[in-house]
Amino acid sequence: MLGRTDSRRRLLVLLMIFAVGSMALLARTAYWQVLRGDFLMARAAAQTTVRIEVAGRRGDIYDRTGTVLLATTIDRDRLVAAADQLERDPEARRRTGDELVRILKLDPEDAQALRERLDSGRPYIVIARGIEPSVSELIRQALREKRIEDVSLEAEPERVYPQSGGGPDSTLAAQLLGFVNRENVGQYGVEQAYQDTLAGSPRVMVAQRDVNGRAMPETSVVEEPGTIGEDIRLTVDASLQLALEQELLAAWIADSAKSVSAVVMDPYSGEVYAEATYPSYDANDYKMVAKETPQRFIDPVVSSVYEPGSVFKMMTAVTALEAGTVTRTTRIKDVGTLRLDHGTTKIDNADHKGMGWITFEDGVAYSRNVVAAKVALGLSKSTKQSATMLYDTWRTLGFGQKTGIDVAGEASGSQYVRDPNVKPWGEIDLANGAFGQGVAVTPIQLATAYATLLNGGMAIQPHVVSGVGSRDVTVPQKGRLVPKKISKTLLHMMDHVVQEVDFYRDRTLVPGYHVGGKTGTAQIWDAKEKEWKHNLFNYSFVGYISREAGTPDLVVAVRIEEGRPTIARLGHLEMPVMSFELFRRIATNAITTPDLLQHRTVADPIPVTDR
Question: What is the architecture, at CATH level 2, of domain 74-162?
Fold first, then answer.
């Protein structure tokens, strides 16, 4: 008889093993289903659903009238394909590729790139964007006739700038406006500065994925409704902007300049009526600009600093007039060369000649460097104190700091407006600063400072947006920076510049209007070559035009960058279009622009009896 093979002990061991295993499985199941259940559900949802953000319609941008559309958004088509479906049928893939190359009129390089994308096997690829309606119709027809397969058209918003600019291959106010990239994000100018306002917030939806990983519209659920962007109304007048750009183009060609810039501003409200630089660009073709000339995206009016030259003599004048060290009629001996720093340095007049004893206002009118330097050196008994006084005037009038204009990319130039209390100035530094060398500013800073000098001494806030949606933009009021009496004197001095000097008078005055201002011509330092650029200069003019004496209506600042004089002799550097001639053309266009100044209310006129 065989012995028994079962064992009570063995059974107990097996039962214990099964019990422990069952408890472990139960605990593990409970862990995943109870403690980690939310995590698993989230993972499952992530694999079967997709979160979609749809940008709201971007707000439009209008000129000051609210009728001229400067920027808007339209729906264009983008062409997409399911390359994984085409992968199953090589013949259909080849035929589709050939037909799309023909319809889209692709060159060999782009055609090869398209075929590579169709060969990728990915479930969703973008083939082309911004397709014109006529091309979209050709694609739809090809789909109906089954000449192409597994492709579709999707609506896609595209930012467009419908107004042509004042020069070839440009749109109106391109550098002021900026552009919008494919992600609906503003780049440069107003588009970037007002990105949140214009773009609104996106609509957020959740939808189930199909077998190809694409969202199924019928399953979508809105999580956040989003908001559409608000429209913006600028202070810019479209007709004046176009005329300004045309004048800049003409001067750029005539003077063989690197660039020409100008800004037209209301000296009381700070509203910018027009501002531009040529060369400009076509904002509708920003991708090509980015590839070939990306530097054109930068707006030199607000983003580029330069040595302004003798237009800065008015900053020396206001400092000395406030200090009481000179009056308009104070007589100063003008010599051709002034030696400084115990004879180790010197400054010269442009013609290296002296005019002898002349009044201070004549010294400014004839742009005598020696006179400006003497006035700056005479602000106080010490060079240090005189330098501090001049520097304080610069800072008070906004140089070396941002004006706060409401566009992206403004430069402060702080590194070029040196504090003499941090690094002491020598006499040569003070003298050079007195006539705008050794300091760098932007055109918008110059226009803003001159507006204060001319409007009775009140600080202003330059701005380019006057309204958002149905709301008017409120610009904060600022206080007085210059005594009204001093402002009146400065106005007289700027009148004197264009009335006293024949060279300016004949090409600056506008019949029937009151005009004044100050010129500037500055050498350009080549930092790479460590020398002055040969026969290239920065030319500036900042001035005003008005319908009534004592009440400047408009401030116009002009800069001609790297202008090449056609007449170059000692003390006389003349181009076909001088800065003050360009000022006259722009000022005339501005003052005669219909309805531009009808809305304005200004302070009391500055009396003009004290001549």
Answer: Alpha-Beta Complex (3.90)
